[in-house]
Amino acid sequence: xxxxxxxxxxxxxxxxxxxxxxxxxxxxxxxxxxxxxxxxxxxxxxxxxxxxxxxxxxxxxxxxxxxxxxxxxxxxxxxxxxxxxxxxxxxxxxxxxxxxxxxxxxxxxxxxxxxxxxxxxxxxxxxxxxxxxxxxxxxxxxxxxxxxxxxxxxxxxxxxxxxxxxxxxxxxxxxxxxxxxxxxxxxxxxxxxxxxxxxxxxxxxxxxxxxxxxxxxxxxxxxxxxxxxxxxxxxxxxxxxxxxxxx
Length: 247
Hints:
It is globular and about 40 Å long. The protein is α+β, with helices and mostly antiparallel strands. It has a 4-stranded mixed beta sheet with strand order 4-1-6-5, sandwiched between helices. It starts with 20 loop residues before the first helix and ends in a 12-residue tail after the last strand. About 20% of the residues lie in helices and about 25% in strands.
């Protein structure tokens, strides 16, 4: 989070569930898959993949802060999602790939406002450009003592994005959902601690951990997923391990 954050602008709340698949799909240039994602998010529930990310309970004296990330999917003919790579000097998740987001501030109206403010501070997205679909169940990330809510939103993909806080964000990448779903880009990541979970092997990024779990869930929810070799295991590159072996 940047110092002296701008005041969050009002966000557009998601409308109630649609009365039929046709009416939802008709609103999306992204077609049936984006409509399916919208229905899935609004239906709620916790996926097995998400549950696998939650670490063991923290000691009772640990202070847990609320955080939010923004899963921003473009409502275009070729939907994509916005990813960032965190700077290598950060204390938590250094050098790793993430969704825009961060910890809640007292001035945030709610957790959705947190996600939109953080996206504005990190990648320059104006809150008014996001159409909030809903939220996914929060997940405890023990290494950063955060209870993280994922806010899912769509946008027209037209507004330019750029690094606002270079101290936190090293790079921005819009990745097509079809690129993420490509079986050639799927594997299971092996962490030195023994942890194994979904990974995405892109040409210029290695995605694992909480972010990979979320992407895996979103691909499933939107119907983009394809069968992939779940027996393929790869070690996490050193530059993506962060400062802690427990991240």
